[in-house]
Amino acid sequence: MNDILFMMAFPFIAACLLLVTRGDRARAVIAEVSAAIIIASSVWVAWNYLGEPQAFEFHSETVGLMMFAAEVILGLAVVGLGVRHRKYPAVALGIVQLCMSVYFEFVLKEGIETEHALYIDDLSILMVLIIGVIGSLICVYAVGYMRDFQEYHGGEPDRRPWFFFLLYTFLSAMFGIVLSNDLVWMFFFWEVTTLCSFALIGYTRTDEAVNNSFRQLTFNLVGGICFLAALMVMASEYGRLDMVSLLAGDSGERWLLLIVGLLAVAGMIKAAQMPVHTWLLGAMVAPTPTSALLHSSTMVKAGVFLLLKLSPLMLTDGDPNAIGYMVMSVGGITFLLASMAAISQTNAKRVLAYSTIANLGLIVVCAGIGTPEAVWAGIMLTLFHAVTKSLLFLCVGTAEHHIGSRDIEDMDGLFTRMPKLAIIMIVGIAAMFLAPFGMLISKWAALTSFVDSGYVLTIACLVFGSAVTSFYWTKWMGKLAAVVVRGEECEGTVRPQEWSVFAVLCVLVLLCVIGYPLISEHIAVPWIEGAFGVFHESLVPLLDVENMYLVLIMLVALILIPLPFFGRTKRRVVPNYLSGVGIDNNTYTGSMGATVDVTLRNWYMEDWFGERRIGRIGEAVTLVVIAVAIIAVAGGFA
Amino acid sequence: MSDIEAIILALVYLILAPVAGCVLAGVDRKLSARMQGRRGPPIRQPYYDVRKFMEKEQITSNGVQDFYVACYLLFVIVTGCMFFAGMDLLLVLFTLTLGETFLILAAYCSGSPFSQVGAQRELYVAMAYEPILLLAAIAFYLQTGSFAIGDIASSDGMAVIPLIGVFVAFLYALTMKLRKSPFDLSMSHHAHQDLVRGMTTEFSGRTLAMLEVSHWYENIMLLALVALFFMDGTWVGFAVGLVVAVLAYLLEVYIDNGFARMKWQTALKSGWVVALVLGVGNVIVLLLM
Amino acid sequence: MSYAKRSPWLLHYDASSCNGCDIEVLACLTPVYDVERFGIINTGDPKQADILLITGAVNDQNKEVVKQLYEQMPEPKVVVAVGICACSGGIFRDCYNILGGVDTVIPVDVYVPGCAARPESIIDGVVKGLGVLEEKQRKMEAER
């Protein structure tokens, strides 16, 4: 158990070190060495504890008290900051939460003791690997990126020690969330991630950043209050406060269903589902490593982790219960509408953000369906999304620093300006929606389980959402792939840390393709067997996926065969046809002999898929769904 | 279906599909000419065209275009072979999307305004028909309990009766998939288009030949998908499927000649309405049954 | 017989024609004349064309265009000048802006006179062009 405690505590120690380090060199060394240690310790923990779930006895009054004290201090800080920036909703929610947690601590929690504070199983291990490996890689990337960032924003005070402190603390808190059995602990870490991301989003302290960080905080405080409310119900009705006994409960009972519902709402808020998806979009103002971290390995993944964990309770006697339907509906609607909104975006980071929201929606649906097949697909989606999305975010960050824009339109012909980066980006995009990459295979499994669940809303959402998804990815890919001679090649100044992180992530993307059956066999399937009490035979449809997988490997081979010919031709190269007045591929002679540039813009269909319109529809519908479900459960109608 | 049978069927497709596809393309041109009161070219005309492309001087607009088109051909063939080997229908559709993506990249990569606008239109149309294809796969699954084409083809009773809505929707999508007027937005075999030759503007010589051959392969596979609605494991089902597939193609030729091109908005709106009403409607009925 | 001869694709360019010959070129595609019988397709893309069919005389404005269209066509290729203006400049020959027939800019293989050229003679000219096309194809293969 000590290795687990070390893994949880070490990032925080590194964070404290980084907080007091000023020099660039020293920071780079500490950040990189501690990232290596985090990766090593998470792989070690994964290796050591894979297999049987284990709970660890850990009980200490002091730790509990310290957590409570930290919670109160952070709560007061929130209230203070809110007052200073005149964000009164956040202040109000902060005060409500403070009162609730004091009441909970001194009245309801009295006499309830959780012996096994920590718990590890295969799902936690998968999350540990995602957080440890991908999270640390993003931290390494941040070292080079933040140097450029500081040069770019030369006039501003250097707050990088604070930035790195937050990044590493975030990792600690995430480890805490996925490894806590004691729900009070989990709640503490949950709140820490909220506050860390609050501080990270507000890092640049511009008005926009402050506004967006408070939006994030407000929404997540609502989530926190839901979480706390669930704890209060659980303490007063069941007298227990641990995950294991929660999962052992009977979802037919009204109070348990209410607990699950409240926790699910907390999870969906954290996973940036509609109606609160705007907090994740607002997070785009932060430096790119923040967005990469929030989107791929931490924060939002905490939300889906909780939902996947609760997924067995979304079924009652084999059928989805009210909460299951609520989660499915919200996830499905979010998937469809967020994918649509992505079409209307020119800002690459916002496209990525919408795609994250959409994919999380898909995972949320999987959790809501709650059948072993669906949850299996959800787990696999979580993993592949983390790897691919982090790669894409980091690519966009690097492109932004070198071409001076994160607009997709400005990435026209990136293929000629930053060839290597463009190819990495194309691979990343392809990995998001094309065969034979993991995302698509998991989506395939998800589709199958959606159909099996027989809930027509999610089927329709998935079908239309997939069509929309390929649209916005392909048009971006096309922009990148265009061979236009405009602008110099500017790839030379990309920092070595960035290249090495790209290399590792690319390898990870490919490893995920090759290691797909292994991950399924050794992590996902055993966890599902444990959590659902089903045996290997009943997971046959899942193993079918592995057969399918052989075919996909063949597809990979087929792509690789012609690859040596990529970019070479013996043919006569003739400039583009520009109605006979072309000068070269991109210019032509216009009227009066003027030289005119050919410029092309993608279509964004603002009238159809404008985000304001789509967002309003989504917010209204999902809000109604959630309200109806929670009221029905609390009132005992469901 | 045994493995050997599957391999034989895939091989038969590999060898015969281009022949059949070429004949169909020839019939298409002949028939179109007759509908317009002309004599039209010989049936073998598409074959002559392709041979001519092979003979011509090879030119290209950049070094990567041929790679993308070659991948398109490759994946169309793979898709067809997987289909005839009776594999998973969803996987077949996904592989087809992969091939399609390569074609779109080929059109984008030249940087030519004509082919890029063509590629964008192709994307719209793909967005319009994709839900129908997926819904068709789902409906087959709900009806027969399997996504495997082999199982679907040998299931009891013709699937078309309970899947009639999906079948009609699929015919609608077929017009888009075959790039027939009124939905030949991205490129067209008709003379004089607003976008020169749309996506194919920068293709010539062998690249164009590869594209033509991929169309032959793809068309046969799409028609086989039409026939799949009628397959019930007997010779009767097979024969009916074959006849209906040919009739469907003739219908498409008729529509092609009978309609002017429509706006992309119409393609998207109508495609989605058809998918929603006929496709999702039919799926709801199947779920209730 | 080479395949080029069985599937000649046309690129029709109006240099500075009065539209008389253009109408007649298009008439060749109509059911009455139906040149698609010979596998002829009227394409707009030089990269896919075998025969460049030009109507009207060449002037200062479009000489570069004609040259570029010609250059963008893959070998073997044939140029057919349709109408007397394309052949020699016709009645516009002495205009200040007219360079003369198409052959002042690019090599022409077949001349189809007439004002306007009749569809029959246009078809005749194109079919004559097919012979040249085949010859060029042979030559190209021999060089290879």
Structural account:
The complex is a heterotrimer of chains A (638), B (289) and C (144). By secondary structure, chain A is mainly alpha-helical. Chain A contains 25 helices and 7 strands. In chain A, strands 1-2 form a two-stranded antiparallel ribbon. In chain A, strands 3-4 form a two-stranded antiparallel sheet. Chain B is globular and about 55 Å long. Chain B has one domain. Chain C has one domain: 3-Layer(aba) Sandwich (Rossmann fold). Chain C has a 5-stranded parallel sheet, sandwiched between helices. In chain C, strands 4-6 form a two-stranded antiparallel sheet. The longest helix of chain C is centred in the last third of the chain and has 25 residues. The radius of gyration of chain C is 14 Å and the shape is globular. The model of chain C has no long low-confidence stretch (mean pLDDT 91). The interface between A and B is large, with 56 and 64 residues.
Number of domains of chain B: 1
Low-confidence stretches of chain A: none
DSSP E strands of chain A, number: 7
The oligomerization state is heterotrimer
- Radius of gyration of chain B, Cα only, in angstroms? 19 Å
Query: Helix tally of chain A?
Result: 25
Q: What is the β-strand count of chain B?
A: 1
Distance, first to last CA of chain A: 41 Å
Strand content of chain B: under 5%
State mean pLDDT of chain B (0 to 100 scale). Answer: 90
What is the overall number of helices of chain B? Answer: 10
Topology (SSEs and partners):
The complex is a heterotrimer of chains A (638), B (289) and C (144).
Chain A: H1 2-20, H2 24-49, E1 54-57, H3 61-84, H4 88-108, E2 116-120, H5 122-152, H6 160-179, H7 183-201, H8 207-238, H9 243-247, H10 254-270, H11 278-282, H12 288-297, H13 300-310, E3 315-316, E4 319-320, H14 322-343, H15 348-369, H16 372-403, H17 414-417, H18 419-433, H19 438-453, H20 456-481, H21 496-514, H22 516-532, H23 540-560, E5 572-573, E6 587-589, E7 595-597, H24 606-609, H25 611-634
Antiparallel strand pairs in A: 1-2, 3-4, 6-7
Chain B: H1 3-35, H2 45-55, E1 59-60, H3 65-84, H4 89-109, H5 113-144, H6 149-153, H7 164-177, H8 206-228, H9 235-258, H10 264-288
Chain C: E1 9-14, H1 20-27, E2 41-43, E3 51-55, E4 58-59, H2 63-72, E5 78-82, H3 84-88, E6 98-100, E7 110-112, H4 119-143
